[in-house]
Design goal:
It holds the Pfam family FGGY_C. It is built from 17 helices and 24 strands. The longest helix is centred in the C-terminal third of the chain and has 35 residues, at 461-495. It starts with a strand and ends with a helix. 40% of the residues lie in helices and 21% in strands.
Length: 496
Amino acid sequence: MTLLLGIDIGTSSSKGVLTRSDGHLVAQAVREHTTSSPRPGWVEHDAEQVWWRDFTELAAELLAGAPANERLGGVGVSGIGPCLLPAGDADEPLRPAILYGVDTRAGDQVAELTARYGQDEIMRRCGSALTSQALGPKFAWVRQREPEVYGRMRRWYMASSYLVRRLTGAYVLDHHSASQCDPLHDLRGGGWIEEWCEEVAPGLQWPRLVWPAEVVGEVTAEAATATGIPAGTPVVAGTVDAWAESASAGATSPGDLMLMYGTTMFLVDVVGEPVPDVRLWSTAGAYEGTYCLAAGMATSGAITAWLRDLTGADYGTLTQEAAALPPGAEGLLMLPYFAGERTPVFDPDARGVVAGLTLRHGRAHLYRAALEATAFGVRHNLAAMREAGGDLRRLVAVGGGARDLWTQIVTDVTGLEQSVPRHTVGAAHGDAFLAAVGTGLARREDIADWNPHRSTVVPDPERSRVYDELYEHYLGLYPSTRETVHALAARQHADG
């Protein structure tokens, strides 16, 4: 039997799996890491100390326990995105990587580029309005604010493409990741908008565009020494983590929607044709000929981790205590905008709000309110997707947070069933599957056998009625507090 290696670089941890070509999970491993936030609104990763170190350690650990009589047939990678890692002549990182939409430093550049090209034209060509998620403004920020870095910059990478470069020497980027590089990529045309690339980020080499499951090279002798992966092993291009996770869950056909429970909550709805909407992102899919409507919350699991650290209680205890409380956390309502918010409000200066606090409320109430807040955020995004023309027929729950209480609360809040696959280990499993597809060891339709349906989460009508009432208050809480939290955010920026 042939083995496949999949490794994903996440926001707060990296995960790896070793599978057989029939999808059997042989081993898995995790590495925790942190982000750096040197100033308010800045979120960064050190490419060497996070991306490459995590990859090499995970690969070595997983391969050390591989059956001696089974060979490694392919490698797949994924990671957070879209990110911007400036690199020099020798591919050396010139500064820490600027992360995806949780990094909000380029607000001025978003406004400048929107004014230059016009929102309607950007939407027509790229499919998405410019926000903190877009990569073009981050190029402009580096060029304007760090000219010494930009002057040495020759190439640039995301997490997955950097790993591919280190493993194979290939300078490529997958079509999906490129479709989040607004306003530099033509969504329908499937290529770089050369005149805008040269205006926004002149003088750079641009990566060749490929599809995530395409084999783009083989592991070099140097990379083999660093990782333990045999030289000559095929490597596929990979993609952004959420789309690898969609592939893992089989959510790749029109009507499928993936909910990724992680540090942030991410939603991917597969559609037959682009349906641009200013509240969402319209992107290329994981496979050629597919498109997606995507949404992403700036925080979800990040809030539960914050509460865990703040209270000193472990997740199991907090979950057990929160599960004993009724819907609504006995009169608490939270806005989950602890790091600003992405879709559908696109407000980097939004902030978290907890309404209804009394002296009788404790850590369990806050924890349940946090889970409910993310569920209300999911419902808000699903409503925007429907209004945009999204096709929501099958919801699949994936990610490390796809646990009983959280998924049940989301189902009760939205009123929609969720399918939970056997493996929810996430994007790393999808990486292995994409490697299997790219090397001819599996077909796209084989995902049903690789990762079959395990259970269905069904809404409880009584709890759903309670949440219907609370949702209306949730929708009103942001506009009623926006002026105040914006003033507080301004103070935070000044203090930073």
